Amino acid sequence: MRRRAVLAAGVGGVAAAALGGLPALAGPAGSKGRTIALVPLDDRPVNVYCSEMTAASAGVRLELPPRELLGRFFTPGDGAGIARWLGSVGQVDSYVISVSMLAYGGLIASRTATATMAEALANVEAIRTLRRARPDATIEVHDTIQRLALTSTGTPLDAYISLLVSWAKLYDQVVNLGQEELRGQLDETRAKIPDEIVEDYLAARARNHQVNRLMVEWVADGTITHLVLSEDDTAPVGLARAERVELEALAAQLGVTDRVEIFPGADEVNALLVARVIAAGLNPTYRLEYAGVSGEDWTAQLEGIPFAENIRRHVKSVGGRVVDGSADIVLAVNTPSAVAANRGADLDAFVARIGALLAAGTQVIVVDPLIVNKGDHALVSRMEAGLDLAALLSYSGWNTGGNALGLALGHGTARWAYLRNSGSGFGVPQMSAPGQAHAEYLLYRFVKDDPWKNVVQTDAYAHARAQGWDPLRLTDQQKLYFDGWISDRLGPVTSQYFADHFAGHKIVLGRRGAKTFTATLDRLDSVHVELPWDRLFEVTLEPHLRLS
């Protein structure tokens, strides 16, 4: 994947002419010259590009390990090399560190027992070394509670994925929750899975859980400033639930529940913690608006707690709190309707409320968690028709509910923090690059989560299967073919989406007193499209805009 460098080059008009030799990412006092060192969960766009753009929309730069250390797909990253990099990176203000990458080589690698406990512990020791070298630094850490399912590998192992998930749920219900009436199902399911698969699965879980516990202990002793333990694709019951309960008890026992958050999610946490660093000390408040039922009464797929509780935990992780009355930001959340027949009317009313909030000058983040792995086109199409999309702080409908929530919350909070501090004596030229990055990321999110997921990706899966190819395990030749096939389709889709919903619209660059500085979204200069991994599940999409 091509690393995106967010520069002011291409900003049109007087602003571009005035940029001169100033740093492209100079910004208000709260962010000028700031750099955050990030060890990402893996090298996919959701963990690298989305984090970079979240930071760039607030005028902040990310420093990442060399690309060759991050691995790719089934090739693990070099945890030992990243540990050395952490010790060498300089001139940074804060650190955001994924333990799954540092300890095991990434999210997929963390789901197998390949990395030994000794190797994992040696790699994460870099965090303690960093603390000794930087006693006053902010060190934000993210670790994952292993999901129930294995990763699809395109091998005979895939035949046991659903059986292993069923067994992990039944084991929790029978052994941990005492539901003895299910023991026959537990034994029957276990008998269908080879011993070596269960042993590797349990070995990885035991290793990861020990490292999870260690991270909580390091919060207690001051090594780690703040910790997120995210539940990767979880469920109300299962081995992950039992691990979460134990970790919650440990955090309570050590008195660190104010500095440890545990919630469903994974891929969004890099961007969320980057936003936490950017908004530190601002304590943003959020009010909730639901499209349908309350999040208290709805649990998203692949999650184990009500969505309202997941919102509260994500908001706490970004440094804010949910309130009932006046708030800095409104979180507009797409939940299912209480009565299916009323869905259209509910969405119409929801979009109308968002429009009224925007017209009143309210900052709005739209979270679209309803459908796993894609935006809700019924909502997005209404937003396209009834809203100025460029006026939103952020939007996301990507993957799980927690993923969508955290990506939108991270981007929107970082941008809100930038705008809040934008009156600190800096002119329009210094505001232009963050504004451009913000608009590019908004365009990315809408195209990626709706037309890519609902149309182009669906067509790509069908095209691959028609040729007898596995969409989740492409050969080198097939990947090269689809790089071109998808670029030929998604590039024009992105150009048309910009023309239809962004071109000519104004974005707010910053505010000083009663004066608001804006720029017009002039044109789309280019779009970079390719597959980051040898599968059709995600895509690299990097639009480059011009402001005037």
UniProtKB/TrEMBL annotation:
Pfam family, one: DUF4127
Recorded superkingdom: Bacteria
Name this polypeptide is given: DUF4127 family protein
UniProt organism field: Micromonospora sonneratiae
